[in-house]
């Protein structure tokens, strides 16, 4: 197995981190582009494997869409293949075939798509046989499993001859991602209404436009964490906007309690250290991808904190709750479920002189535990796991003066 050794470092000279582009924005814009009449001018698409996979599959249009481990690519392309009336097999990694998709398949079947499960009911792989005729213009979708099903349906809604009305049922998680989808659709000329739990999109055409993808706020979060855990330093994160389409820009507010001041200018955001004021409770319902970053930060900083809104973490790239519990324990921190769906970080009191982190095929495990190098030597297993969203992550660590050495073991 490949291991990356990260040597201990806790002071960071001012450095600019170029940051990759957002894979969430990129993957939406690529679907919208494929559905647009006319030619869009899209720039700054993400280097993320999830986005490169989407580009490749849309470009080559093979009979089997193998999305690897990309959730958005799986969900968005499933709806796209149906609306464009294609015969397609949708598949991915073993883990992807354990991530549920039944809610999206039911919604697509409701509007007339023919889709069959090839193995286990409710999970990929799927055989799609297109959508010859729209049989309904209304669907109900529960909102507490994954917002990606809702985003997938929304992006195809304008193309449906009768448009679409979506009734969101129950608690809605990752709401900021649904908002991102609708705001992006609006930038490409689509009008919609969202009142209470009903979103309505009439039949209409996407208008060709120019769009530049913003830098990735989820990827930015690891740099906030690094500086929060460091003794001193300053980092400039390029290409981020204060008024972002991405809900993970919430990291600015979260980190303002964990010792980071953010100052925006037109190029990006400057991070500086300020005293930790501490916050006892964090809710990740609408920013689940930040949970690992903040859990590790609290554990390292000695902040005992409660976390809620983690329900979706068990069905992501890995069971992120289990993975956090296992890896935090390696430096004597804990992540305990103290009440149903309420987790408490018990920070580390003693730090081993080196910690080997297992990454569970989850890019965010690798990136979230990187800031541990402010306290001890870190041995990161399977460092290429970061390629899913941030292939240049370790290169950017080197820019920040972190020494990274590859080993086999
Ligand atoms: O729509 C998106 O781009 C995403 C939505 C979120 O998933 P869920 O809606 O499944 O929480 C998030 O975790 C994922 O990384 C990206
Ligand atoms: C959950 C994630 O991605 P996806 O669901 O698109 O695989 C993620 O990037 O953290």
From TrEMBL:
Q: In which pathway does it act?
A: Metabolic intermediate biosynthesis; chorismate biosynthesis; chorismate from D-erythrose 4-phosphate and phosphoenolpyruvate: step 6/7
Q: Which reaction does it catalyse?
A: 3-phosphoshikimate + phosphoenolpyruvate = 5-O-(1-carboxyvinyl)-3-phosphoshikimate + phosphate
Q: Which GO terms describe its molecular function?
A: 3-phosphoshikimate 1-carboxyvinyltransferase activity
Instruction: Give the E.C. number(s).
Output: 2.5.1.19
Q: Which Pfam families match?
A: EPSP_synthase
Top-level division of the source organism's lineage: Bacteria
InterPro entries, A to Z:
Enolpyruvate_Tfrase_dom, Enolpyruvate_Tfrase_sf, EPSP_synthase, RNA3'P_cycl/enolpyr_Trfase_a/b
Its keywords, alphabetically, are:
Amino-acid biosynthesis, Aromatic amino acid biosynthesis, Transferase
Similarity comment text for this entry: Belongs to the EPSP synthase family.
**Protein name from the UniProt record:** 3-phosphoshikimate 1-carboxyvinyltransferase
* Phylogenetic classification of the source organism: Bacteria, Pseudomonadati, Bacteroidota, Cytophagia, Cytophagales
């Amino acid at each position: 197995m490949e291991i990356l050794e990260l040597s201990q470092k806790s002071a960071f000279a001012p450095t600019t981190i170029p940051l990759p582009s957002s894979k969430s924005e990129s993957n939406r814009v690529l679907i919208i582009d494929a559905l647009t009449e006319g030619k869009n001018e899209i720039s700054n698409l993400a280097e993320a494997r999830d986005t490169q996979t989407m580009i490749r599959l849309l470009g080559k249009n093979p009979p089997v869409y193998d999305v690897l481990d990309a959730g958005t690519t799986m969900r968005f392309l499933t709806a796209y293949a149906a609306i464009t009336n294609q015969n397609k097999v949708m598949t991915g990694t073993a883990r992807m075939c354990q991530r549920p998709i039944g809610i999206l398949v039911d919604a697509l079947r409701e509007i007339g798509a023919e889709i069959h499960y090839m193995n286990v009911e409710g999970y990929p792989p799927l055989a799609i046989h297109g959508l010859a005729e729209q049989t309904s213009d209304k669907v109900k979708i529960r909102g507490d499993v994954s917002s990606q099903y809702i985003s997938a349906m929304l992006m195809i809604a304008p193309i449906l001859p009768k448009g679409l009305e979506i009734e969101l049922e129950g608690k809605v998680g990752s709401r900021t991602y649904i908002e991102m989808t609708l705001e992006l659709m609006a930038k490409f000329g689509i009008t919609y209404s969202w009142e209470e739990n009903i979103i309505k999109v009439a039949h209409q055409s996407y208008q060709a436009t120019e769009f530049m993808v913003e830098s990735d706020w989820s990827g930015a979060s690891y740099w906030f964490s690094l500086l929060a855990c460091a003794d001193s330093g300053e980092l400039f994160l390029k290409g981020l906007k204060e008024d972002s389409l991405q809900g993970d820009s919430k990291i600015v507010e979260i980190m303002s309690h964990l010792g980071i001041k953010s100052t925006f200018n037109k190029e990006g955001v400057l991070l500086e250290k300020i005293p930790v004021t501490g916050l006892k409770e964090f809710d990740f319902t609408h920013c689940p991808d930040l949970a690992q970053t903040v859990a590790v930060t609290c554990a390292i900083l000695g902040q005992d904190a409660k976390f809620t809104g983690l329900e979706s973490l068990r069905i992501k790239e890995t069971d992120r709750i289990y993975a956090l519990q296992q890896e935090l324990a390696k430096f004597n921190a804990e992540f305990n479920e103290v009440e149903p769906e309420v987790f408490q970080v018990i920070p580390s009191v003693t730090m081993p002189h080196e910690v080997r982190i297992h990454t569970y095929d989850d890019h965010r495990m690798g990136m979230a535990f990187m800031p541990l190098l402010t306290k001890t030597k870190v041995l990161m297993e399977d460092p290429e796991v970061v390629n899913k969203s941030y292939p240049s992550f370790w290169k950017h660590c080197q820019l920040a003066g972190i020494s990274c050495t590859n080993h086999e073991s």
